[in-house]
């Protein structure tokens, strides 16, 4: 497929999204001559911002429901699925029965990109790893591009890249489904880890984990698979993967891979062998999980051909990622950290471990994703000084698992500002107020980014009040 093949094609985009998830795809398709129909079950008023972003383009809208004819051969040559649309959606089944090809933005990018791509996935750490990797490659090749599941439209890269441009893509499990359906894999695949998540949309953990592993399923012997050797779900890949495998982690066996030992990374591959030391006091790289993210990114960058100096330059340039262990402010010696993207228990547990040397005032609670909350409850019992809860379907279950804690529990609250104020009221200099829920956000918030925005706004008001006082 080439970009020219889109000209004149009737393309149905299923799922516009209220936060612009489909805007970039629709704009790309329309600008390259496709006849685009955008359809979404949400009412027009709920999608007004996204619709306005496409103003002036030749796009037809079907909102508040779907017209079956837009998914049949009589109405469409191609259907593009938004990541927010379940793979089992009835309209997708209809299109497949009719013989209409079903793609996603990511699979279209893989088909249309002029050169090899680097894909990063995993349950946690994929955004940080992708960002670090792009910084490392940018220090080697300034034309490097970063896009994907982090909210940066992928197809819009096509006008700015050629066969030599390094392209780093954060890829979700839903996007892997589309790649697997069309037997596509990146030239360099990075899998950070796998732990239970999104079990409300998968039949079980086994199906979810297998989806993650499929990122590397269609690689060739000329490709590279960078995998976490400490992760039991990923270790088995080394024996069956068609690509060259490079492990990273604490338990790297043999003489090949990136070994993590405290704050030191040891790279050994072919005739290369050197060490990289992480800055001891860098907040954005604090915690063992961050050392593993750096190791994954460094192994991928080196596999792409970047030199050691570029790896070190990328580490030095890393300033953190919004909503993921983000230091919002420090007020009277109390740190306020936004880790709203921790929507699974394993991610919140990693955040609690990261701040194990400080008194933690945790903000948690929210919506259930059919995940086992017991490990999170145990970590909360062991590590926090106070707990402020947000209301949601997962909150009662989490409270029950925590049992009778030896620390104060505040809430549950229906707004973020009250939760932040409750945590701040008992925090002392040297403490950390940490938003790291370990569950989803729906109910009180639009999504996890809205939750993070409201945390950030509440902290900024605290900063203002403190300054005025």
Description:
The protein is of the alpha/beta class and 469 residues long. The protein has 16 helices and 20 strands. Strands 7-8-6-9-10-11-12-13-14 form a nine-stranded mixed β-sheet, covered by helices on one side. Strands 15-16-20-17-18-19 form a six-stranded mixed β-sheet, with helices on both faces. Helix 2 (48-53) links the parallel strand 2 (35-40) and strand 3 (59-63). Helix 13 (374-383) packs across helix 14. The longest helix is centred in the last third of the chain and has 21 residues, at 448-468. The N and C termini lie far apart (63 Å).
How large is the radius of gyration?
Answer: 23 Å
Count up the helices: 16
Number of strands: 20
How would the global form be characterised? globular
Largest sheet: 9 strands, mixed
SSE class: alpha/beta
Average predicted local confidence, pLDDT: 94
Query: Separation of termini?
Result: 63 Å
Name the poorly predicted regions: none
DSSP helix fraction: 25-40%
The strands making up the biggest β-sheet line up spatially as 7-8-6-9-10-11-12-13-14
- SS strand fraction: 15-25%
